[in-house]
Amino acid sequence: MTRDQPNRESADPGAGIGDAKGWFRAHPKEWILVLGTVAAALITGLFTYLSASADNAAEPPPATTPTPGGHAEDEDSSDTDAAAGPPDPTAPAASNGTARPAAPGVQWQGALLLDGGGKDLDAGPPAAASGESDVSTSGVGGDYSLNALGGSVSVWDDSGGLPEHADCAEAADAAGTSSAPVEPGAVLCLRTDEGRLARLQVTDIPDVYGPTVEFDALVWSLPEAGTVPR
Q1: What was the pLDDT predicted at 95?
Q2: Higher pLDDT, 139 or 82
Q3: What is the pLDDT of residue 1?
Q4: Helix H segments across the chain?
Q5: Are residues 128 and 215 in the same domain?
Q6: Residue 141 CA to its chain's centroid (Å)
Q7: Assigned domain for 225 exists
Q8: Domain range holding 198?
Q9: At 40, is the pLDDT very low, low, confident or very high (cuts 50, 70, 90)?
Q10: Are 111 and 208 members of one domain?
Q11: What is the mean pLDDT of the chain?
Q12: For the residues 63-76, what does the mean pLDDT come to?
């Protein structure tokens, strides 16, 4: 009895591969065209991606947008303000938006002793004088007064610190009288007969006979012509 021979064509596993190789050999132009098309598509996609990345990197920052109050956010102005730094604390203070002129310089400063006799504060340093005195003391039993001879004097009652030139000018001109009481630690502002301003701080009232009082004194110079210091 004769056995059927197996189908060699269906049993050969390399038959399909051989057919594919044969097709590529028979159609070289077609598969080269296919490969070229795929490569071109890949190159085009890569170029598009790189171009988009470059455009995004070169894109300028967004424009400033107005705030609800109507002002645009301006970083440049903030940088300029920061570079300008804080205001100068030594600049003259402003009053009602107007800068004060600088105060005149100090003519004399030091310890001043008054014992009933007069002193001329317009002289620097203060000197005893008979007819040109600006200040003297009077009183008995520790109840003493400071007298302004030809000018005005006022007690500075602000506990915020020692008065400056502008403060003493206001005190002596607005509330000044011919005399003011003297107490330990008191500060007095006096305008002389020539117009100078003096600040007198009581440092000691010795327990001696007569109106003897020691001061830490500061006398400002007269302002320059044409200026009105504050």
Answers
A1: 45
A2: 139
A3: 47
A4: 8-11, 15-26, 28-58, 75-84, 165-175
A5: yes
A6: 53
A7: no
A8: 103-220
A9: confident
A10: yes
A11: 78
A12: 53
Non-local CB neighbours of 196 within 8 Å, separated by 6+ positions: 107, 121, 122, 219, 220, 221, 222
Decide if pLDDT at 172 tops 80. yes
How far apart (Å, rounded) are the C-alpha atoms in residues 131 and 73? 69
Q: 45 and 153 in one domain?
A: no
34/143 same-domain check: no
Q: Which segments of the chain are extended strands (E)?
A: 94-95, 98-99, 106-114, 119-120, 127-128, 135-140, 143-148, 152-155, 179-182, 187-191, 197-204, 213-220
- Structure tokens of 145? 């007064």
Query: What is the rounded distance in angstroms from the CA atom of residue 59 to the CA atom of residue 89?
Result: 44
**Residues 124 and 210 occupy one common structural domain:** yes
Domain boundary among 24, 43, 58: 58
Find the range with the poorest average confidence among 23-32, 105-114, 211-220. 23-32
More confident residue, 85 or 151: 151
Domain contains 50: yes
Residue 84 located in a structural domain: no
Q: What are phi and psi of 172, to 5 degrees?
A: -70, -35
φ/ψ (deg, to 5) at 82? -65, -40
Please give the structure tokens belonging to residue 207: 């327990």
Do 198 and 116 lie in a common domain? yes
Number of domains in the chain: 2
User: Which residues pair with residue 210 across a beta bridge?
Assistant: none
Quick check: is 8 in a domain? Answer: no
